[in-house]
Amino acid sequence: MGDPLFWHRLQFGFTATYHYLFPQLTMGLALVIVVLKAMGLRTGEARYNDAARFWIKIFGINFAIGVVTGIPLEFQFGTNWAAFSRFSGGIIGQTLGMEGMFAFFLESSFLGMLIWGEKKLSPKGHFGAALALWIGSWLSGYFIIATNAFMQHPVGYTHAADGSLQLASFWAFLLNPWALGQYAHNMIAAVVTASFVVAAIGAYWTLKGLHPEQARLNLRTGTIMGLIFSALVAFPTGDISGKLVAKYQPITLAAMEGRFESGPRANLTLIGQPDVARRRIENPIQLPAVLSFIAYGSFSSNVKGLLEFPEDQWPQNIELLYYSFHIMAGLGTIMIAVMGLAALLLWKNRLDTARPMLWVLMLAFPFPYIATAAGWAVAEFGRQPWLIYGLLRTLQGGSPTVNAGHTAFTTLGFAGIFVVLSVLWLFLIGREISHGPVSHSPKA
Amino acid sequence: MEMLWFWLVSVMVAIYVVMDGFDFGAGILHLVVAQTNEERRQVLGAIGPLWDGNEVWLLAGGGSMFLAFPKVLASGFSGFYLAIWLVVWCLMLRGISIEFRSHLEDGLWRRFWDGTFALSSVLLPILFGAALGNVLRGVPVDGTGYFEMALWTDFRVGGTPGILDWYTVLIGVFALVTVAAHGALFLAWKTGGAVHDRAKGLALKLWGAVLVLWIVASFATSAVNPDIFHRLPQAPLGWVASLIFLAGLGLVFVGIKRERFLLAFLGSGAFILGILAASAACVYPVMLKSTLGPQFDLTAHNAAVGAHGLRAGLVWWLIGFPIAIGYLAFLFRFNRGKVKAAAEGEGY
Q: What is the pTM of this model?
């Protein structure tokens, strides 16, 4: 507890995980709103605009909390991770600066028009505002993923005379293969989140017998988008992300799977508990040779185990990494099954009356949140003991002049603020859901 | 190249102060100039579409400093640790206050957010002003490139000063009054009715106070850091900036007298921009002055990253900056004219 690094890590992990709950929804919802507004323009039917109007309200509340919880993350680079910032600011400052210039200005300029501008703008103008928010938030996502990708798989740098990192190739850095793979995986997961939330609201209103037209539209939209994107999150994007880990961080792959011994025809562990002290996995249920295939595209490939690497290069928390990965992958599979079943019922025209399925859809919306948080835990715990993979250890990255007490104090401060924000969020979102959609169509 | 980036960062920070300054000012004054719910919604309607974009200048300016002078950012942010978090918490509180107030049609709910909006709007300029004061006074950065400072000590400038001492608090108060005066002109320009009348009445008094505080702050600065004024004769940009802020100050009083508040508001923007640019010109190339000796100063030369990074950054900066200005022009055009309170449920 007297170790400042412990608090720096806890604070960043805690504030980043909490922050990301909001953009995770709004980035996906932005696409849902664009789709609904586009359908409204195409068909001229009021129901699409009514649905969009409801989701824009939910978007607005989440976006506001996303903005205010995002501010502390930008500042932590300097306050808590000063040595890391000195070492690599010349590189990651590029993407963080670009995020402000190209994404935040776009989002902040059109947010007010999206939320308040429906009457003031033409239908096409309002669609344009939705489009601007979608593009802005997805650009923002790319710059952050590219920043993280540099920490996972540094490219495009050289060492300056004082040992710090300098940009050597802007495009190599910006188009890091790790960034491209992770970006696709992450953004699709955001759409999955929004789809589950949309479907959950549709299911809730259907079960309550409220707003039948809107309930059906939300169920339909959520289920169709949910199935498509849940499938895409696993294949090809999850698969690509896994292969990137196998290629660039083989130690991480071994730790994610709790694999200690090397060898060909590596088994994929579905269930089991890693016992790091005894260097084995307990009570495993495994698929033979599947890990070799997933990681390297052939059943006979050799997948290295942890024992092949020096122990000071192992991620420190192998158990947490292992469980995070298996929770992510397991929930991903469950989500495909849920949406597959719902889509089947939708196709048979029986989803509106299939009450057990509606209960499942209503209650399943936390799954993508949990899976995404677990996925980011895999990325961040998996990168350990490095802050920048192979270049800077986490131990070397903290601010030398900030002590544990200061960081403990501000971390507790954030805990309090987040409790307040959560209560406000619940209250305001609950109100919007109970108000339901507001129709502007002539008959209303 | 380093000099160019020193100026790009300075300009972005100055634009931030001008832009967020007027919505801070609106927040500082709104409990006074807007009494009824209708009037408060008029104030919020005037800054609502703009405040978030204004704040982006802080993030974009910070990002530019990060990419060009990471050592300054690392040293300053970790050295001012607790003060930075006070700033962040105020920014968070303020954003939530503006965005959540309109959600409930309830008197208590709205008065609560009015209070938090005013409180955070008052604290932020004091803290930012104190930050500027610290940069002008200097901080105990040593050979490691880092420093550590208490939030306050004995409020004296010598010895081991805290982040807050009499000088930095003075600059904080100067900043508070200046952005309040700046905000009064914005409200006088953008609103009508009672809010306009009250803002107009306050503007002249506040600008009188700015004038007095400006003179006091200038003398205090020359006492705390005499080098700054000694450098002025050799800094042509400092002369240009001084002309800008003097002209701005003139415009403010002419504008108020002739009731042309857009003119006065532009004048107050020029005053803030000019006074910050003049400060930057006089401290150049020092970005973080060391109180332990000039050999420890973090400067635009010893804190800058390599040439490739600066060049790449410049290319996208030259693309991004006009786009950002374009959005701004579009926003002001879209929201042109005097602001009325929106119908319930259709605006801030």
A: 0.94
Cβ-contact B64, A97 below 8 angstroms:
yes
Q: Where are the alpha helices (DSSP H) in A249-317?
A: 250-256, 290-296
pLDDT in tens, B302-333: 999 988 999 999 999 999 999 999 999 999 99
Give how far Cα A339 sits from Cα of A328, A345, A366, Å.
16, 10, 14
- Chain A residue numbers touching B334 (CB-CB < 8 A): 113
Is residue B106 less than 8 Å (CB to CB) from chain A? no
**Positive or negative torsion for Cα A383, A385, A387, A393:** negative
pLDDT-above-70 percentage for chain B: 100
CB of B73 less than 8 A from some CB of A? yes
Q: Comparing C-alpha atoms, which of A16, A397, A408, A361 is closest to residue A200? A: A361
Nearest to A89 among B67, B308, B321 (CB): B67
Chain A hits for B346, CB-CB cut-off 8 Å, are 116, 119
Non-local (6+) Cβ contacts of B284 within 8 A are: B3, B6, B235, B237, B300
- Mean pLDDT, chain B, rounded, equals 92
ipTM of the complex: 0.93
Report how far apart the first and last C-alpha atoms of chain A are (Å, whole number).
Answer: 60
Q: How far apart are CA B39 and CA B341, in angstroms?
A: 7
C-alpha distances out from residue A148 to A79, A193, A312, A408, Å: 18, 21, 22, 25
B20 vs chain A: nearest CA distance in angstroms? 13
pLDDT of B89 over the 90 cut: yes
What span, in angstroms and rounded, lies between the C-alpha atoms of A237 and A259? 23
**How many CA atoms are closer than 13 Å to the CA of B232, on its beta-carbon side?**
16
The whole-angstrom distance between A237's CA and the closest CA on chain B is 29
CB–CB of B59 and A74 under 8 A?
Answer: yes
For chain B, the domains span 2-219+298-334
Q: Which amino acid is at A227?
A: L
State the Cα–Cα distance between residues A395 and A380, nearest whole angstrom: 14
- Quote the crossing angle between the two packed helices B307-334 and A105-116, to the nearest 10°: 20
Instruction: Check residue A443 and give its pLDDT.
Output: 42
Question: Per-residue pLDDT tens for B57-84?
Answer: 999 999 999 999 999 999 999 999 999 9
